[in-house]
Amino acid sequence: MKVHKLRFAWLAAALLSGGVLAGQAVVDEDSMQLMEDRNKSLSSRIALKDAAGAKEDAQALAEMFADVETYFAQKGKGDAVDWSKQSRELSADISRYVAAKDFDHASQSAVTLSKTCKTCHQTYKTES
Amino acid sequence: MQNKSRRDFLLKAGVGLGGVALSGFLPGGGFFFAPAEAATVNDPLAPKQPHFPAKVKTVIWLHMDGAPSTLDLFDYKPELVKRAGQAVPAEYTKGIKTFTQGGVGKLFNSEKRTWKQYGQSGAWFSDLVPNLAQHADKIAFIKSSVTIGATHDISILKLNTGDVNPGRPSLGAWVSYALGSANPDLPSYVVLYNDKQEPRAGSANWNSGFLPAIYQGTAFRPGDSPILNLTAPGYVDATEQRKALDLLKRLNDQHAGRYPEDTELQARIRSYELAYRMQTSAPAAVDISNESEATREAYGLNDEATKSYGTVLLRARRLAERGVRFIQVVSGPAVPEGEFRNWDAHSKLEENHGHNTKMVDKPIAALLADLKERGLLDSTLVVWTSEFGRTPWGESGDGRDHNPWGYTQWMAGGGVKAGYTFGATDDIGLQSVGKTVDTYDLHATVLQLLGLDHLKVTFLNNGRSERPTVVYGEVIKDLIA
Q1: How far is the C-alpha of B251 from the C-alpha of B265, rounded, in Å?
Q2: Which residue stretches of B145-184 are H helix?
Q3: How far is the C-alpha of A20 from the C-alpha of A34, rounded, in Å?
Q4: pTM of this prediction?
Q5: How near does any CA of chain A get to the CA of B416, in Å?
Q6: Could you tell me if B123 and B421 are in contact, meaning their C-beta atoms sit under 8 angstroms apart?
Q7: Which of A1, A44, A104 sits opposite B465 (nearest CB)?
Q8: How many angstroms away from the CA of A89 is the closest CA of chain B?
Q9: Chain B closest CA to A2's CA: distance in Å?
Q10: Radius of gyration, alpha carbons of chain A
Q11: In B, which residues are within 8 Å of A122 by CB distance?
Q12: pLDDT number for residue A127
C-alpha cells in the first residue's frame, strides 16, 4: 500500500499590491520524507545516548511540526492541527529529556511521536 | 582477506560435514558472521542476561498462513449475523481504502456458523474450534489487531519483521541476538512447517536482516532428516569424520592463534562443532517415535487430517523442552494435493476453514494441554497469529477478502493474563475500535515477556541504532499478568 507522505514547504508568494508578502503553506511528499528521516535519526541518537544529536533532531522536528500545524490550520483540519501540535510538544519534550540525559523518557516520547505521525497519516494519507 | 585461500581449501577439505552439511544447514546463507560484526563479538550465541526477569524462556509463534477469518473463529458479531446479505453501511468503511475485486460485497455470514461461550472467561468460540475452546481460560485475546498491506507477502514480512521493507531481522532473530542460545547443541531459532516446500516468501521471514547471519532461523524440514545435508555421506564413517574435524580444528586453532582478532574464523570453528553435534541432537530433538500413544493421539497423529500439523507441534514442544528460544511454526496445506493450501479463503470459506481448522484445532489444543501437563506452559509463550484477518463482507459469493484493519490474535502461556480479551472490532468486525495492536506492539509485548525492553535491544547498522520495533512499539501491559 502506498502511503502518501506529506511534505511541508513554504511557498512565498509576493503580493505586489500594497507590497505585502503572504506565505502559503504547502505539504508534499518530499518534506514529509525528510521528517521521517529526522524521526528515525532521532530514535537512533536517543538509543546511542547522543544528547547533542538527538536535541538537534528534536528541535528540527519541532520546527517542522509547527509548520505542519500552520498548514492544517489554514485548511481548517482541526484533528490534524491537534496531532501536529501534540507532535510539536512531544518534540519539545524530547529536547528537554535529552538535555537532562533522561534517555528512557526520551525514548518513550519518541515512540508516542511516531504513533502520532502514523495516526495522522491514516486520515490524511490521500491528501495532497 | 589474508587467509581466504587457506579457508577455501579447508572448506573443500572438510569432508562431508564441513563442506556439505555446514553449507546447507542454514537456508539462505551461512552460519558465519558478517565481517562487519565479526570484530565486535566473540561468542555470538553465548547466553545473555535479559534486561529484567523473564516471564518465559521460549516462544512458539504459530503463524496461520493465508490469514484465517477470525470473524468465523473468535470474534462473534451478532450484528453481522443480523445484517448478513445487506450492503455495508458507509459509516463502517470510513477511513479505509478497500481493494476487493469487484467492489465491496454484501455482508456475509455462514449459516452453518454457531457460537458458544466457554470457560470462566466466557470467551466466544465458533463451532470450528471446539478443541481450542476447551482452553478458553488459558488464552488472552487481542481483538484489535491491525497491520499494513493488503497482500500476503508484504503483511507476512511485517508480521515477522515489524516492517514492510525487506532487510530487517525477524523477531526470532532479534530474540536469538538478545538472549543467545540456551542449548549449545541446537539452533536458538527454529522454523517448522508442515509442507513439502518452504512457506510462502521463504527465508525472508526468518532471516537475520542486518544482524549477523548466525541469528537467522534454521528451517527444520518435515521428515526424519530435519536439516538438509546434515547427515554425513554414507562413505564417511563416524571415526573418519571425527578425525577430519579434529584435524580441521587443530589447523584452524593454530591459525586463529596467529590471528586472534579474526572472529570470523572463531565463529567458523564453532559452527563446525555445532554442525557435528547437531547431527545427533537435531534428529533426536524431532524424533517423536518415543512419544506415548496417548500423546500421539492427543496431537492427532493418528488422523490424516491432523497428522502433519500435529507432528510439527509435537516437535515444537520437544524443541521448547530443549531450550530453543524461538520456534516459528508456519501452517501448511490442509489438503496436501487439494485447493486449500492455506487459509486464504477468497471463496468457499466454509470448506476452506473447515479443512484448516480441522488441521490445527486439535493439535494446538493438545500443545497447550501438553505444555501445561509438563509444567512448561509457565515458561513458554504460545502466540497464535496471522498476517491479517478477513472482511465481514463476502467475496465470490462465499468467501472473504483481506482485512488489515481489525482482526484477532491470541497468546497463551507464561506471564499472559489468561482469560482476558484486549480490544475489540466494530459491530460488524471490520475495523478495530479504541486502542489497536500493530505488529510491533505485539513484538514489544513478546520481548517484554522474554525479559527484554524492546527499546534497549539495539544493533548498530551503518551508524544507526536499530531495534526490533523500528521507531514504534508499545508493550500491551493489559495482556501481562
Answers
A1: 11
A2: 152-161, 171-179
A3: 30
A4: 0.87
A5: 23
A6: yes
A7: A44
A8: 18
A9: 9
A10: 16
A11: 95
A12: 46
